[in-house]
Every structure is written in C-alpha cells, then in structure tokens.
Design goal:
alpha/beta; Rossmann fold
Amino acid sequence: MSRNPKSPAPKRGSPVAPGVRDRSIVLVGLMGSGKSTVGRRLAQRLGMRFADADDEIERAAGMTIADIFDRFGEAHFRDGERRVIARLLGGKPMVLATGGGAFINPETRALILKDSLCIWLDADIPTLVERVARRSHRPLLKDRDAGEVLRELAAVRNPVYAEAHLRVSSASTPHEQTVRAILEALATWKS
C-alpha cells in the first residue's frame, strides 16, 4: 500500500468502495500506532464524525484512564471500555480510535468485527517507542521500559489484531501517509 509521498492528499469525501461510509470504521493497534491522530484525519477526509474511545471513557467515568486503572483495576476499565464502544458503534457511522487493549477483549472484538470495518494500524517497536515517549499518561508503561512492554504486548496482541478486516502499516513517516494508505485500501475494499 505504498504511495508517492508527493502525490496530493485525497480530498474530503475521497472515493471509497460502496458501503464503506454506511458503517463505522474502527482503528485498532498498539499504543503509539497513531490511532487517534490518523483517525481524526481519516474522519475529516471521509466526511464522518470522529471519536476517541479513551476520551469517551474518561468523559463517562468522570476520571482519567490512569485513575480508573489505579482505583478499580484493568478488568473494571475493560468492562467500561466495552460498554462505551458498544454505545458508540450503536449510533451513526463514525471513525473510532480504540485503546490498545480494546480489541483484545473477546466481546469487544466480536462487536467491532460484526458492526464495523476494523483496521489494524501496525507499527514496528522502534516507531512505537519513539511515539509513546512523547506522552506520559499510559498506565501500562508506568515505571517500566517502553520497549520491553511494547515487545511483550506485540507478542500477545498482534495475532489478535490480525483478525481485523484490513491491516495498514503505520510507519515512522508522517501520519498523512497512513491516512492515504487507508484511503487506498478503502477504495478497493470488499466486505
């Protein structure tokens, strides 16, 4: 899915295969893969609404994800995450960026695969480490080496992310290239 980086960016309302805008597009992948940034840009190009599941969870809970993890644990967070994603997918089609662990939950994964077009943003470990170093809010990285954590997570999660309908590389290039690669994939996608 490579594209000449000097080609013009697809415009809002970019051509996509029939039916693509009739369902939500859900981005999955490890932390740092660019789901939120790419998702915002993709939604703009497609003329769709964008939502970040983590932001929606924080709004619903009235606290940060880090606070939810600290006070109630990961299992409680995942249950709330599943409910928020189900609510979002039950509404008008949108582009939805999920947290890195959302798709790992079997119930959440089944919901996403049934009701949306799921895209795995796949990035190599050095790219992910570079990106996550820019922000310090990630509970799974608290007091741990980012590279080590990401390698462990990739070993467990990448085989699950591979169940997504599409896989797009999110390389250490500008996020705009990833958006273009997704649009190219969507132009020829068949459900």
